[in-house]
Every structure is written in structure tokens, then in C-alpha cells.
Amino acid sequence: MNIPVDHRDIADLLAITLVLSDVDGVLTDGGIGYSDAGQEFKQFHVRDGLGIKLWRIAGGQFGLLTARSSPLVDRRAKELGVDFLVQGQESKLGQARKIWRGLGLDSSQVCYIGDDLTDLPVLQAVGWSATVSDGAPEVKSVARSVTSAPGGRGAVRELLEFILRAQGRWDATIGSYLKSLEG
């Protein structure tokens, strides 16, 4: 992950309270498999799930925006308790704006991570844009940070940890999480 090198980067990261993410190619490796019976399957990385939980423990909100529709994404979103899920919307910018405006936020308080061309309008509109190491070249050219992990291999966790560390909240978040495990 790129490390912020100037005060503007840190200031921009401090403002982030909402993280929105694409699904295919970011939370998954982008592969879409089908069984002989025609059932779709996807694979999600457990570290991304924990990253989302940690972000939410820290008080952040998290949402998924995907051009495709899948019951598997609905299931994973429910498991993780994400705040927003929008499926079947190839034009994601309008949906993203509805979410952040509905929360009374402006775009400077939003981070978006995507990997392909459908993500470009949102990436160009938010305060912090990110992509995965195997993101499309056009996306990498506009993203402010690029994860070292590829999509579906912990990239979202890497991004969320990066933001929490920049905000000085990583250690307290880990402490809260570990305390919750003592229960």
C-alpha cells in the first residue's frame, strides 16, 4: 500500500468515515464459477471480512456497490453486517452519492475501492480512491493508493488497516476487538 507522504494525504485520510467497495475483483478474485446445476459460486477472503468488522468497530460505515446481482453477495453482506448493499447497478456513482448524501456526508469523507472501468466515476468523485494490485491500468492511473494484495486476497483489509493507522485508531480498534473475544 502506498504510504501517505504529505500532510494533504493524512488530512484526507483523517476525513474518511465511509468506505464503499466493489465486489467482483475486489472482495473476490473476479472469477465467477458455476456448478453443473448452474449455481454460481464466489470465494471471499476471511481477512477482508475481519477488516470490515474492525472498520465498523472503529465507528466507520461500510457499503458494497456491485454491477452484478448475486444471492452470495447478499449472504456475505449480512454475515459481515455491512451498512449498505447495492447490487445490479452498473452506474455506481448515483448510488454512491445517495448513500453519502443520505448520511449527511460530502465526497471528501468517502473512500472507494474498485478494480475496473465501471468503478472510475466513483473513484474520481470521492475523497480517497483505491484499487487492488491487479486492478485495470486505467483505474490504477486515478487511484490515490494501490494495495499490495490482489482482489480477493485481503486487499480490502489492507486498505481499511491503512486508513485506521493513518487516523491513529488501529491500536485502539484492535484492543476493542480483542476485548470482545474475551466475552
Radius of gyration: 16 Å
CATH superfamily, by name, is HAD superfamily/HAD-like
How many domains comprise the coordinates?
1
CATH architectural label = 3-Layer(aba) Sandwich
Low-confidence stretches: none
How many beta-strand elements? 8
Global structural class: alpha/beta
Strand arrangement in the largest pleated sheet? 5-4-1-6-7-8
Assign the CATH class.
Alpha Beta
| Order of H and E elements | HEEEHEHEHEHEHEHH
Question: What share of residues are in beta strands?
Answer: 5-15%
Lay out the secondary structure.
Elements: H1 7-14, E1 18-21, E2 33-34, E3 40-41, H2 46-57, E4 61-65, H3 71-80, E5 84-86, H4 93-102, E6 110-114, H5 120-125, E7 128-131, H6 137-140, E8 145-146, H7 155-166, H8 170-182
Parallel strand pairs: 1-4, 1-6, 4-5, 6-7, 7-8
Antiparallel strand pairs: 2-3
Fold and architecture overview:
- Helices cover 41% and strands 15% of the residues.
- With 183 residues, it is of the alpha/beta class.
- It has a single domain, classed as HAD superfamily/HAD-like (Rossmann fold).
- It has a 6-stranded parallel β-sheet, with helices on both faces. A two-stranded antiparallel ribbon has the order 2-3.
- α2 (46-57) packs parallel to α7 (155-166).
Keywords for this entry:
Rossmann fold; globular; 8 strands; two-stranded antiparallel sheet; 41% helix; alpha/beta; 183 residues; 6-stranded parallel β-sheet; 8 helices
